[in-house]
Amino acid sequence: MGLFKRKLPAIQPGCRFVKAGDPPSKAWVVTRVWETVDGIPHARLENCIQQSESRLVSISVLNDPEFFIPAAEPTVEP
Prior knowledge:
The protein is mostly beta strands and about 80 residues long. About 5% of the residues lie in helices and about 35% in strands.
């Protein structure tokens, strides 16, 4: 552990992200988080519009703003 290593926010199911460069309406939601055999944490993402489309990415990629940006939570109309 490095002395200057920054603490990253916890990523858990329900967190939403947008791929860098995509419009904010094209969000992905985390449906599962786990650690692989080699100890690298990964997340499964599903497209919020087309649930049949999914991706597996490492948590470090989700925390890198060059790849993904945290998305705003959808607003619920009363």
